[in-house]
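Researcher: Please translate sequence to structure tokens.
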Amino acid sequence: MDGGKPSLALVYQAVQALHHDPDPAGKERASLWLGELQRSMYAWEISDQLLQLQQDVESCYFAAQTMKMKIQTSFYELPPDSHNALRDSLLSHIQNLKAGNGTPPSVLEFLALAIADLALQMASWKGCVHTLIEKYNGDVGSMPFLIEILTVLPEEVHSRSLRIGANRRTEIIEDLAYYSSTVVTLLASCVEKAGSSEKMLIKVFRCLGSWFNLGVLDGNFMASNQLPVVLFQVLQRDDTSTNLHEAAADCVCSALYAIENVEANVTLALQLFRGVLTLETAYHMAVAREDLDKVLNYCRIFTELCETFLETTVRSPGQGMGDLRTLELLLICAGHPQYEVVEISFNFWYRLGENLYKINDAGLHGVFRPYIQRLLHCLARHCQLEPDHEGVPEETDDFGEFRMRVSDLVKDVIFLVGSMECFSQVRPAPRPRDAAGRRPHGGALHQHRAGGRDERGRRPEPPIPR
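Model: Translation complete:
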């Protein structure tokens, strides 16, 4: 960029070369040149012009990506008196692009991130949520994009890429908390209007989960809202698609994680507790249909339920929200032939053992001992090798890693059963088979193991306690 600001024609040429040049060397040169452009001060004006002209999909994608990157990493380059103009320009681009034909979702997603990051860094933009809802709420065609912004806004609050201090983050969270009920009301309205629109429901559940993860939703207000009811209706239906089912499951897990302080969220906690207990039949139906994606989703929900109510369960087992049916749900999952299913719950069993060990109450240990015995039976069956297996399993493969994790878990809970009783109880038994008679282990489902939290904030892998 030493030669000054490049022309738009030259930028278009480089973007086209990056996407369509048959010569790899030409693509590489274009990539390096465009990367240098993105790091320059000229990138602000050029990306704004490209978005305004909308000449082709490739240039819009490059411009939206550049705008997002510049706001995220180089916002300090802009003088404060240009912030309002940048905000208004971005909102205008979105209004024009969403009405255009063939605009890829990634372009709008980049712009949503750009606006979210701008709102978080632009201290003069007060009540950004109110501004966005007021601007787009009346336009049905803009609703998907509005929800996209409202989804990424809470997610970006703790982004390490944004150069904002702790005081500014606190101010942002307080502002978002103030408007959280308005957002929930908007989402509930979207569900009512969505009808059978799966895409809209997925967007609504993702957005709601994002606000749950930020921890700013009012429990009493949520309990009086229709959205939790809709979530469990979706999870109970047999015809729910895999994508919608996962979005609903993620949202319920986020809600359960958010109400971990049960005493402060009693009304919502009770609603979620009862709702999850209704999913047992749906779990069995998923097992019968060999729908492993849904099985894993249900097990994640059951595990999150047990994690959230762990202290209540230990403090008052069998009473109220200490109902031991929650443990029964996990043991039902432990009987599934895929060992990845039971592995999701390992962190809970570890934490349960840790809590009981600290309390050191023989009577309380006696209450939970039968559950640990049944868990050990299931784990022993999952860990058994095939009869025709030769040698020792590799510790680095999926099954070998699972056996090592089982070993660690057993060490944490065996004090409840006693080593001698454990060895006498764990007798050789055939490993569970699926409906086709297979004895599965490893494979594609291994990515779900341990209920690991993804970028949307789900729980980290055990044995890290929550």
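Researcher: Any highlights?
Model: Residues 21 and 257 are 49 Å apart (CA to CA).
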